[in-house]
Description:
This protein is mainly alpha-helical and 140 residues long. The protein is built from six helices and three strands.
Amino acid sequence: MDNMNLKLVIAITRTYDSLLCEVEKNFKEFGLNISEFGVLEMLYHKGDQPVQKVAEKILVTSGTITYVINKLEKKELVVRRKCTKDKRVYYVSLTEKGRGFIAHIFPKHKSFLDNLFKDLSDDSKKQLIENLIKLRKVLK
């Protein structure tokens, strides 16, 4: 690994760490962790989902998603139910309380992100997204 590659890895790692720290602080204001918010946000925008698909999309293991959904069920924000066609599959859905909760906090989270990235132009954001997508493809 040459010096530039090492600097790239360090820059990406430090940026990720800083971003995650800021985002986690924001979620704590809502009484959630990043995984819980990810589940609620996915269900809010995509509707009822199989548990395994939720785990894949929010990048957690099947064991972790079970723990996260259990926590959200205790907060009465989601419910889990068996699929009528395949008893091995469980779906997770927002409760009425969960839908109201995420509908209330999602605009606040969006405003937080707008403020977090306010110093980056739209062109800079587009270029950064494109470069990160290219990097992800190289890493696969």
